[in-house]
Design a protein that fits this description.
A 6-stranded mixed β-sheet has the order 4-3-1-2-5-6. With 151 residues, the protein is an alpha/beta fold. The longest helix is centred in the middle third of the chain and has 16 residues. Helices cover 24% and strands 34% of the residues. It has one domain: 6-pyruvoyl tetrahydropterin synthase/QueD (Tetrahydropterin Synthase, Chain A, 2-Layer Sandwich). β5 and β6 form a beta hairpin. The chain has 3 helices and 6 strands; from the N terminus they run ββαβαβαββ. The two termini are 16 Å apart.
Length: 151
């Protein structure tokens, strides 16, 4: 039997969807929740720190913090093809935190991006076959998107 765990972090991050038919075409921000879902076998090695766990929740938090939070918290994510937004952000000066990506920063695309950032760092320490199976991104309290690994 396989067990799953989830751990999340939050960021305050700006973006815009340049071609959107409504208000999301404007520069704005969200309190994002980035949630990693990990699957695997429980560690059965006696006496180790992770005994009885898939992976220590604090280790998952450390990965999320380094590879998602520290990249996009209090930053603005902008699509490389959105020249208007890039020009506006450039006027903020060289110390403005701007993250340029090659996709429109919708919740769906950000879920895939986060999966790609986190996945290489989910490692098995005790042979318990861990894998990141999904990244869930909450953009608003009513709006979530997920990138799910296909079996």
């Amino acid at each position: 039997m396989t067990t799953r765990i989830r751990r999340w972090i939050e960021t305050d991050t700006g973006h815009r969807v340049p071609n959107h038919k409504s208000k999301c075409k404007h520069i704005h921000g969200h309190r994002y929740r980035w949630e990693a879902e990990i699957e695997g076998d429980i560690v059965e090695v006696e006496g180790v720190s992770d005994e009885g766990m898939l992976m220590d929740f604090s280790d998952v938090s450390d990965i999320l913090k380094e590879h998602v939070h520290d990249v996009v918290d209090h930053a603005f994510i902008v699509y490389s093809g959105d020249q208007d937004a890039r020009d506006a952000l450039a006027m903020m000066g060289p110390h403005h935190r701007t993250v340029v990506v090659d996709f429109i920063p919708t919740a769906e695309n950000l879920a895939k991006w986060a999966f790609e950032q986190v996945n290489p760092h989910i490692q098995t320490a005790y042979g318990n076959q861990l894998r990141l199976v999904a990244m869930h991104v909450r953009e608003t309290p009513k709006s979530w998107a997920s990138w799910i690994l296909q079996s």
